[in-house]
Design brief:
By secondary structure, this protein is of the alpha/beta class. Helix content is 34%, strand content 17%. It folds into two domains: 12-177, Glutaredoxin (3-Layer(aba) Sandwich), CATH 3.40.30; 185-257, no CATH class. The chain has nine helices and ten strands. A hairpin with a 4-residue loop joins strand 8 (135-139) and strand 9. Helix 7 crosses helix 8.
């Protein structure tokens, strides 16, 4: 199986998952939500749904045959499925398929041992849109999304997460985090930071105002998301980046332009008693 050591994992993988105290850890979302169900047909014509994997850990892999990183991880996914075949279910969902027959041939020639289907637009939307490939959603045995990986990941991470969710021994701690849009974009309103947005020159009150504005205003790039969601979904989007920078700059400028209080406006160090207080003191 994919090599990892019971006493710990060395090298770049261990460094990439190490927390600030250098103790290696993996992270799962706190209070995970159920993964959106779907009803599809595999490339072989068999029904495919999440319900069919109830009680197993699920790796839901959005990929494409033309995607180089997607192709690179296939042998490791096949090995992982074979090793944990009774406890894990990998599901491949193809996106941007030009020729289904070519996809079928690729899957057959590559020796896939897990089901593959074509993801409908509705499925992609239900999972928040797929901004990059591969994208892997990790589901626990109750069908809840506990983690999401975008881009090519170290295959040992998938195995260690699988073992953790199966309550098998792992040389890592498990940390929990709150979803602020990383898993479900609808939770972007919980975010205190957004990719590519510099809040460092804002006061605490201004930052709150900026986040409110970014969650209230829609992006005009065509994504049909809020500015905050677009920054999380597509950090390379120049439209949401430009508008976010403008909102931050406007709030900063408004604070700089605010006039300082004049001496006459400043409160007296010894203000006269209020009428109510004077009335209490009068005989």
């Amino acid at each position: 199986m994919i090599a990892w050591h019971a006493a710990g994992v060395s090298g770049s993988f261990a460094q990439s998952v190490a927390s600030e105290d250098r103790a290696p850890a993996i992270r799962f979302v706190n209070n995970p939500e159920a993964a959106p169900e779907f009803a599809l047909q595999t490339l072989g014509g068999k029904p495919l749904s999440l319900a069919s994997a109830t009680g197993k850990v699920v790796l839901l892999n959005f990929w494409a045959t033309w995607c180089g990183p997607c192709r690179l991880e296939i042998p490791d996914l096949i090995e992982l499925q074979n090793h944990y075949k009774d406890q894990l279910q990998i599901i491949g969902l193809l996106v941007d398929v030009d020729d289904v027959e070519d996809a079928k041939k690729f899957v057959q020639d590559s020796g896939f041992n897990y089901p593959v289907a074509v993801a409908t637009p509705q499925v992609r939307i239900a999972y928040g849109g797929i901004s990059a490939l591969p994208t892997v959603f990790v589901l626990d045995t109750q069908g809840r999304i506990v983690q999401k990986h975008i881009g090519l990941s170290d295959p040992r991470l998938y195995e260690i997460e699988t073992r953790a969710l199966l309550n098998l021994p792992i040389p890592f701690r498990v940390e929990k985090f709150e979803d602020t849009g990383e898993i479900f974009l609808k939770h972007a309103d919980r975010a205190t930071e957004l990719p590519g947005v510099d809040f460092t020159k804002l006061s605490a009150e201004q930052k709150i105002a900026a986040l409110h504005a970014l969650n209230a205003e829609g992006c005009t790039c065509g994504c049909k998301l809020t500015l905050a969601q677009c920054r999380i979904y597509d950090s390379a989007c120049a439209v949401s980046k430009g508008r976010a920078d403008k909102i931050v700059a406007e709030l900063r400028a408004a604070d700089v332009a605010a006039p300082a209080p004049t001496p006459s406006d400043a409160p007296s160090p010894n203000p006269p008693p209020s009428p109510e207080l004077r009335s209490r003191k009068s005989p």
